Every structure is written in C-alpha cells, then in structure tokens.
Amino acid sequence: DPSPSPSPGPTPGPKPPVKCDDGAECPAETTCCCVTEIFSICMQWGCCPMPKATCCEDKQHCCPQETPVCDTDTGRCLPSAGVMLGSVEWSEKLPATVTRNPFHDMFKRHASGKQRTQQQ
C-alpha cells in the first residue's frame, strides 16, 4: 500500500511590515528613515522604497545598498565618495504608516483633564 504523498507546506504569506519604532511602520522590503528629529528622538518617519537603504542627510531622500553614498549636490547615489561612475538618481521617501501617535495620547489625557475641571 503506497503511503500518501505529503501535503504541500503552507504558502508563504505577505512579508510583515518594517517596524520603525513603537508608533510607525513601513511596508515590507523598504527602509525606515527619520524625517523629523527633535532632541535626537525621531518624531516622524519616512519609508525608502528599497531594503537596506542609506538615509540621506537631507532627510528627504535615500540611496540603495549598492550605491550608498548620498551626493546632495547632484541628487545622486554614488558607489563610493566622489565616484560618479555607476551612480544612480536618489529616491524620495514615502510617508510611514503611523500605528500609534504618542501625542494623541497626551492630548487626550490633557483634554479629559480639562473637562473634569470644568464640571467641578
């Protein structure tokens, strides 16, 4: 009696999003880059449309892993500093998905505190 053939394994589902921090995420196969930073805390994230990207200092653009040097003068990504051969145009970041807004929690608490004092 032949044994039953093994059933095919589970099909891989969509890749999980990339977590930037507790409050933001980017789609799978992208890179989180900080867009707005205050006191070295990232307040707003952007997503580079490629994995393992380099975040450029202008906070708006990013470069692929193969050409990681951001040339802000030319708006290009270089394979290494000063090398234009093999450079590519840099990419603009997309906004990250906000999963939890810490400010929203603060405002909610503040607002509910105000309502309580008005009722007294």
Q: How does this model look, in words?
A:
The structure is a single chain. The protein has a three-stranded antiparallel sheet with strand order 1-2-12, with no helix packed on it. A hairpin with a 2-residue loop joins strand 3 and strand 4. The radius of gyration is 22 Å and the shape is flat. The chain is α+β, with helices and mostly antiparallel strands and 120 residues long.
What key attributes describe this structure?
120 residues; alpha+beta; 3-stranded antiparallel sheet; 1 helix; disordered C terminus
Biggest sheet features? 3 strands, antiparallel
Indicate the mean pLDDT.
84
Tell me the β content: 35-45%
Structural class: alpha+beta
A few lines on this structure:
The protein is α+β, with helices and mostly antiparallel strands and 120 residues long. 15% of the residues lie in helices and 35% in strands.
SSE map:
Elements: E1 18-21, E2 24-26, E3 31-38, E4 41-48, E5 54-55, E6 61-63, E7 69-71, E8 76-78, E9 88-89, E10 91-92, E11 94-95, E12 97-98, H1 102-119
Antiparallel strand pairs: 1-2, 2-12, 3-4, 4-11, 5-6, 6-10, 7-8, 8-9
